[in-house]
Amino acid sequence: MFEACLPSRLQRRSTLLVQLMALLCLLLSSRASLAFTPDTTSNRIALAPYLHFIADPEGKLTLDAIRQATAQNQFDSDGVPPQQGYDTRPLWITFSLANPDMQMRTWWLHISPPYIQTAELYLIDEHGQVQHFRNGAGVAIADRPEPSAAILFPLPLAAQGHYQVYVRLQSSNQRMQLTLWRPNAYSRHEVHQQFSYGLFFGLLLTMALYNLYLFSITRNRAQGWYSLYVVAFVLYQAAISGYAYEYLWPAQPWLGTKSNNLFGAIAILAMLMFSHSFLHLRQLAPRFRYTLLAAAVLPLIVIAGFILTPGAFYPAWIPQLLSASVVVLVPLCITAGVLAWRRGLRLARLYLLAWASAAAGTLVYIGFLLGYLPDSWLTQQSIRIGVVLEVLVLAAALGERIRTLQEECDLAQRDAEQARQTLKERLEVKLAERTQAMRDANASLMRESHTDALTGLFNRRHLDQYWSMRRTSVEADTRPSVLILLDLDHFKRINDTFGHDTGDRILRKLGKLLSNPPGNKRLQAIRWGGEEFLLIAENTSVEEAQLLCAALQQRLQPLGQPDIEHLTASMGIAPIGRDSSLDAVLKAADIALYRAKSNGRNRIEVALHLEQLS
Q1: 3-state DSSP call for residue 59?
Q2: Are 509 and 542 in contact (CB under 8 A)?
Q3: The pTM is what?
Q4: d(CA 320, CA 299)
Q5: At 598, which helix (H) or strand (E)?
């Protein structure tokens, strides 16, 4: 009624003023976010031009405070997030969204990277109704709006609806990207993403398993460290991509927020140890290796930080130290490669090519994280691109190393075979010499054990052996033989009168005489004991033996000179029968010798027939 009372012109002016006021309020309330209408023909829309940011240094801002800050135009409006590097302080992002269609539309808001610790989304319609969602690495997979490795939020937009979107992010890095996706388009994108990651992980794990197999055979430390490096890097990439969280530990959010730094540190440490082993720094650069090993403290501190910090607590200095480890260790490893190359290691060229690609990709990614390089697909994928090249080149390097080792092994085998043959020949010569020496020694020992030391004749031990050999000889049974016992007469008187030296001299002379008997007769001359000697004459009859004994008596007389004028000996002869035993023959010869001494000495007596003696 009040409007009806106003003049028509005033009414039109008041209506226009009200519209202007409403438009001004709308502009003031939405100045911090440029409202836009998603193009329904687009599958993907980057939200960077429409985003506005406000930092929450103390982490105490509520949704109402943020909405009030929006009305007061406190959000940055340049569409670029503050470059804070590694920072765990929350960041608020806002943008407005409209759906002009006459039907409901649903979009998915994708926030990357997937290792953002906490992401909260508030969707507010024009009636003030709020929808709240939580996502991020600190949220279990089952509690996410979409059970996926990626950070996804559904945005259901009612027909002709207007919405204000607030996103609260808390992460160790403020480099993030917000993108709107049509659901079907994102599903196809996720399939392609999983396929590319599957190829990437499959390639690296295949190389890791192959080198583990080679390590189990060769025990080459370089292949073991390389396998650990590849496995750790796969886990690192799985962690930062969210797939490790989705498939390996979906119910441990605290592990999802920390695992990427752990596996990154293990990969760096394994890379360092691989470089130390592959480049033979112990031999080629003994001083520089200590610098390289000392730098390993950095990733070890990161690993210790993961173990010692409780639960999801993870101070910001740990990822910063991990980045510092990369910045320090990569130049050191490249320097080690240059030193090894200059000192004659040919494989260092492939090593440098491999690690140069990996280092370049890693440094590009670190530059992206620290905000020095722009956000693009190339910077986001730089590590994976570099590592794929690295894996392929190092695979060739390890293959070349195996081929070189095989050639060295073949050469060593040839040298070893030649050395073995030479050693064998030397050993054969030495063995022959030792064998001959042992034979000579045994013969000498045999002679010494069978020889009388004073006269040089055989002793009693030799008689037993000779008799045993004689019994086995067929010829000895068919030819006549005799056994003679010779005893020097009155030898005790000689020793007592002239001394034992004179007696020993006479015995030595007698030994020479019996060694060369008259007529070159071959005798087995044995010193039987004291001044008594035993002679065995083969192929000799009793008559021949008597003549031999007479010749010996004649040659005995001058042996005692100048002390003894006439040296005599008594002798007993016993024939050796075919079946005669040694004891029987000795007994017969001893009886004959006794009869010779009893009959006046210096005589030769022949034993009776052995049959009669028995």
Answers
A1: coil
A2: no
A3: 0.58
A4: 11
A5: helix 582-598
Q: Which strands, in side-by-side order, build the sheet including 161-170?
A: 52-55, 91-99, 161-170, 118-125, 130-135
531 is catalytic: yes
CB atoms under 10 Å from CB of 221, counted, come to 14
The pairing of strands 569-576 and 604-606 is: parallel
Cβ atoms of 482 and 574 closer than 8 Å: yes
Give the pair of three-digit tokens for residue 173.
Answer: 């890095």
Q: Which one is predicted more confidently, 521 or 392?
A: 392
Contact 266, 232 (CB under 8 A): yes
User: Hey, how many other C-beta atoms are within 10 angstroms of the C-beta on 403?
Assistant: 10
Scan for tokens 């006439």, then name that residue: 566
List Cα–Cα distances, 83 to 5, 99, 118, 299, 318, in angstroms: 59, 32, 18, 26, 19
Q: Tell me if 178 sits within 8 A of 47, measured CB to CB.
A: yes
Per-residue pLDDT tens digits for 230-255: 899 889 888 888 888 788 877 777 77
Active site residue: 531, 538, 543, 565, which one?
531
Q: In what order do the strands lie in the sheet with 105-112?
A: 44-46, 177-181, 105-112, 151-157
d(CA 348, CA 356): 12
Sign of CA dihedral 407, 410, 416, 418: negative
Dump the DSSP string for 129-173: -EEEEEESTTS-GGGSSS-SSSEEEEEEE-TTEEEEEEEEEE-SB
Nearest C-alpha neighbor of 93 from the set 45, 55, 129, 128: 55
pLDDT of 1 strictly over 50:
no
- How many angstroms separate the Cα of 360 from the Cα of each of 128, 198, 398? 50, 23, 21
Cβ atoms within 10 Å, residue 354 = 23
Tokens of 559: 């042996």
Could you tell me which of 312, 189, 330 has the C-alpha nearest to residue 268? Answer: 330
CA 168/CA 138 separation, integer angstroms: 14
Q: What is the DSSP letter of 601?
A: S
25, pLDDT greater than 70: no
| CB neighbour class for 417 (10 Å; exposed up to 12, middle 13-18, buried from 19) | exposed
Q: Angle between the 348-369 and 317-342 helix axes, to the nearest 10 degrees?
A: 160
CA distance linking residue 233 with residue 612, whole number of Å:
111
